[in-house]
Specification:
- With about 450 residues, this protein is of the alpha/beta class.
- It folds into two domains: about 290 residues, 7-stranded beta/alpha barrel; about 150 residues, no CATH class.
- Helix content is about 45%, strand content about 10%.
- The strands form two sheets. A six-stranded mixed β-sheet has the order 3-4-7-6-10-5. Strands 1, 2, 8 and 9 form a four-stranded parallel β-sheet that branches.
- A hairpin with a 7-residue loop joins β6 and β7.
- The chain is globular, with a radius of gyration of 22 Å.
- About 50% of the residues are buried.
- It binds zinc ion.
- The site of zinc ion has 6 residues, from α10.
- Zinc ion binds next to α10.
- This is Glycoside hydrolase family 57 N-terminal domain-containing protein.
Length: about 450
């Protein structure tokens, strides 16, 4: 019997430009670089050509696919064709789910699952959540959507028997009574795929050495019938790690098969042959901050290396305020059925270029979709909002533009004015004396105002 391994990649980049025609050409990168295009050339396209999506498992975010579709159709086609067998679902966009209301959780999870179904003709078994961030309410929404399991870091799970939660499928039972599986990856393997701890003694310079020194010992740790699982950013191979495309190609296509180690899909795992543990999750935990309560994104831990991060709370407050106000507007205009309408039309609303290719109802839905996209967590991941904060600002402005397109110009104008005032409480540590309002006006220039 060959030994089995699941090597999986999380593929994500935020939508750095707007799909709205009046906001085309606004570049959110301070140096004017198209990072998504650069990473496509370094990672996504070479990996597609080397057959990586045929041998690994992956989540590939809807927002990223949207950014790539026109310029890299062959790459996107390769990803889509492998999604049914190798893919797991995602949330389409990248807000931290525990920070959202229950209804907003339903919308973004529903949109991600619908996209998976539209591409594959199948309901997804598993899902990767933004930053793997979970709370009990998120799990309840996943269960209602028929999701069998979610992937997370071992530090997000506690087993009832107190044993090591690495690489263990764990049954989680939220108060609603139904259950869902937490699939924890192997931390040591995943870390070594992503990082080179000792530059003088690299492990990733040779896929055969990596197999023997990292994967073999990890296989020896297996104990429950669950295959060894490593999960890392898909951008590792080619972007973060310049020679990574060759590394992953050699690993999955030659080094592992030659040793009788089969890279299988996460969707092939037969849970009838796996011992499932019982446990619970740490509410509001994530894979890239170990401090709990999503501390990194709220400026409450030292993940950002001691940077001055007091700007994060007013930043979050401004964008949450905008999203809450737009929720009230769309609920008032469309009634509670707006939730189903948003899930059904999320993809079209996300790509809505504005008039004449829209309707008042679609523009309302697009407004709310843009407000949720403006909650993308990348800005608050870092120590300052200098690079990624502009992305949130652009989508907030576009959310308000869609309100105008929906025939609500006065409410749009008033909401944007209040948003700008709230951005006066935000500052950028890299740009002393400048507020979030200054950042907004500098980015948007003549499109700063409604
Ligand atoms: Zn932290």
């Amino acid at each position: 019997m060959p030994e089995k391994i699941v090597l999986a990649g999380h593929y994500y980049n935020p939508l750095r430009e707007s799909n709205h025609s009046r906001f085309k050409g606004i570049c959110t990168d301070p140096q004017g670089l198209d990072w998504t295009g650069i990473i496509a050339e370094q990672s996504y396209t070479p990996q597609a050509r080397k057959g990586v999506f045929k041998k690994t498992s992956f989540d590939f975010q809807g927002a990223l696919e949207c950014a790539l579709a026109d310029k890299y159709p062959e790459t996107v086609a390769e990803i889509r064709v492998n999604m049914a067998t190798r893919g797991v679902a995602d949330a389409y966009i990248h807000p931290l789910l525990p920070d959202l209301s229950r209804v907003d959780k339903q919308i973004v999870i529903g949109a991600g699952i619908k996209r998976f179904f539209d591409i594959t003709g199948k309901n997804p078994r598993f899902i990767w959540l933004p930053e793997a961030a979970v709370d009990t309410e998120t799990l309840e929404v996943l269960i209602k959507n028929g999701i069998e399991g979610f992937i997370c870091a071992p530090n997000q799970v506690v087993l009832n028997d107190g044993s090591d939660p690495n690489n263990v499928p764990t049954r989680i039972k939220p108060p609603s009574g139904e259950t869902i599986l937490a699939l924890t990856y192997d931390q040591a393997l995943s870390h070594k795929l992503a990082f080179e701890d000792d530059k003088d003694h690299p492990l990733r310079d040779d896929a055969y050495k990596f197999r023997d020194l990292v994967i073999r010992p990890a296989l020896d740790r297996l104990r429950n019938g669950f295959p060894l699982m490593g999960y890392t950013d898909g951008e590792t191979f080619g972007h973060h790690m310049q020679w990574g495309g060759d590394f992953i190609d050699t690993l999955i296509n030659r080094a592992l098969p030659e040793a009788g180690i089969e890279p299988i899909s996460i969707n092939e795992i037969d849970f009838n042959k796996v011992t499932i543990a019982e446990g619970r999750i740490w509410d509001r935990s994530a894979w890239s901050c170990l401090h709990g309560d999503l501390a990194r994104w709220h400026g409450k831990c030292d993940c950002c290396g001691g940077a001055e991060v007091g700007w994060k709370e007013p930043f979050n407050k401004a964008f949450n305020f905008l999203n809450d106000r737009i929720t009230k507007i769309i609920e008032g205009e469309l009634g509670s059925s707006y939730i189903e309408k948003m899930i059904a039309n999320f993809d079209q609303a996300f790509k809505n270029p504005g008039p004449p290719a829209t309707t008042p109802e679609l523009s309302l839905i697009s407004s709310k979709v843009s407000a949720l996209t403006a909650l993308t967590s990348c800005a608050t991941f870092f120590g300052d909002p200098h690079v990624s904060g502009r992305i949130n600002i652009l989508h907030a402005r576009v959310a308000v533009e869609h309100l105008k397109d929906a025939g609500l110009p006065n409410r749009a104008r008033a909401l944007w004015s209040t948003f700008l005032s709230s951005m006066e409480q935000v500052w950028d540590p890299t740009n002393p004396g400048k507020t979030g309002r200054d950042m907004t006006e500098k980015l948007l220039r003549d499109r700063s105002y409604c």
